[in-house]
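Q: I have 230 residues here and want to know how they pack in 3D. Can you give me a structure?
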Amino acid sequence: MVLFFFPHAGGSAKSYSSFKRFLPKDLTVVPMELSGRFTRPSEPLLDNVQDCVADLIEKHSELLSDDYALFGHSMGTVLVTEFVKQTKAKGLRQPCHIFLSGKNPPDEEVHCFENVENASDEEIISFFSSNSLSTPAPPDNALVKILNSILCTDVRMAERYKASPEDIKFGCDITVIYGKDDPLMQSVDMNSWSRFTDGKCEVYPFGGDHFYYQQHKEEVCGIIKEKLNI
């Protein structure tokens, strides 16, 4: 069994590495790093969801012949949705379970910005910092400038993405998880993800904000193990 982890905006998939200590050793955990980010700095910084996902499918195609599951947090839910859409179109094996964390379905008009194309980098960075959606850091640090550039690219492409249940239906059960104090979740009914699957949809609220899982990794991994029967 393979479990693919998809990153949040501005984040490295490697941030999920700490989940491994709470998961069985025979589960293959694969962090999905996007082109041009973090461990792939020499590759093009792709700036739309479709191209990012096509690249990931090509890069990890050999792992899609066995049973696998998908876990996406925030922007990661957008990547998961497009991943299923593209793998279905290619006739590839589909996931046995999908975990969707910290974001509304991609057909709902719930966005960080009224029009992300009109939002400046400074506005995006300020919004994410003030809502504890990213880690504050000195603006004159060279590394931070790179990280902020990645964050703004990711936010714009995630905000632009749209998909409806008519575009894509997940062919498996899904598990939806979120933090009850997440400022992005206050007007969202996470049960609405059920429209994207013909299988079961179970919702698990946790105490905490957007990165609720930092406090609840063991419990989240417990849910993963239960749903995957491992």
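Q: Anything worth noting?
A: The longest helix spans residues 142-160. Strands lie at 2-6, 28-31, 68-73, 97-101, 174-179, 201-206.
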